[in-house]
Amino acid sequence: MRSDERRAAVPAWAAALCGLTAGAVALGVAATAAGLVDPAAFPVAAVGNTLVDVSPGPLKDWAIRTFGSSDKAVVTAGVFVLLALGAAGVGRLVRRRGLPYGLAGLAAFGALGLAAVFTRPGASAVDALPTLLGVLAGGLTLALLDRRALAAVAPMPSAPTASDEPGRPDGLGEPDHEGERPAVMRAGGPAPGFDRRALLGGAAGGVVLAGVGGVAGALLGGHRAVDAARNTLALPRAVRPATPLPGGADLRIPGLSPFVTPNADFYRVDTAFVVPRVDPRDWTLRVHGMVDRPVEISFTDLLRRPLAEADVTLTCVSNEVGGPYVGNARWLGVRMADVLREVRPHAGADMLLSTSADGWTCGTPLEVVLDGRDALFAVGMNGEPLPTEHGFPVRQVVPGLYGYVSATKWVVDVKVTRFDRDTAYWTSRGWAAEGPIKTQSRIDVPAAGAAVPAGRTVIAGVAWAQHRGVAGVEVRVDRGEWRAARLAVTPGPDTWRQWSIEADLRPGGHTIAVRATDGTGRTQPAETAPPVPDGASGYHVLEITAT
What is the pTM of this model? Predict the structure, then answer.
């Protein structure tokens, strides 16, 4: 049986399994190599980052609204699904056309991975190793499984020759006792078949190798070392501690967002598909650009500086009216203004271009950082070191600005520059350059669409206008008058403020709306605007039913 005939005897599902296994081994080996080189050089992560970068703004906004902090996991899962389909297709291609075509298919996937890897900021030649080694391992696996699949197909014996005829060796004389045979003969026993067990055994070995590679990549990527460094870090006490929270800052109404958002519940919106694992022993902050005295600060040096605490609410510019991407925490860190005064910015500078360990950039107005507000290079969050996903070991926190222009996580570089010279990640994609936070309010209780008992009903929520403060909140039920809500106590203008009010609801459907007034006396506008380019606006309005 010719090789192409034997391949045709391999079931389609088995050919696809060969491709899937080869793809899994390729990713496992790539993950291990990326753990040694750079976790961000893992081709799946690089492709995911590229997809985010090239996606139009409205698609990014939709992903954030729909999937929240799981948006990157969804994209990563999508990349894995596409790779799985492609790998299965490679296996089928080997069955139809032969091994060289399958190897060419793997090489094409590798080329896409390399292209994504080299579009990362700061990529170097060594970052190609995970993809190259992965493709090599996948190709070897595909070849071995292809050979195993062919070996599982029994070759068909050839037709009998004259020497096979019964009788004397020379074909003369009397036939033996078996008697006359047909002129056309077929070998006895079962027809050529496929050995499922043999191929499944090979595939299982490949899957185990892929799993070991993935685990090794995670361990080599520094997860344990960085987590251990964070868990053993003892933060110094603040030289300038925040005042204790005043009584009445939290109304403690069931369902109402607490004044302090627990770290585990704090929203996360960023572009990092692989959360950077930055060892504080290797971390440095470089401050340079339009300055007289550029500096580099190690983590140890940063902790030796005077630390300050501040209660600050952070908000994502992508947060829709009534959305969840806002949270409040007590931050600990070094005042950014103190560092900047040391480097002495030039008179013409008006922007800080900060860069994350994963290459993301952010542009912050320089005057905002220097105007006296508690802008921090933060090292602590709610009494503990920063969680890794929130920027460990160091991130920026700047009150009054949306996160895309202020809250760089895993910050490693700050360039003092000008807005007309440099452009940051999101501003190059159509978002406003400076991003001051708009006054906003949200109804937490009752939830949209809820059914509540008729009669006296508590309505409560939060409002924020960072660095201007919330001076008042008003609520309207149906088409009634706006009524002033009771405000919780606040420690300062940089945090959100809880509010509550009671309403007497008759049975039936009701519409509730809320609006806030900031510390300058300006009330948030009723006109609804989408997040792009400078944050959403409009009243939060929801429907409930009283029964």
Answer: 0.70
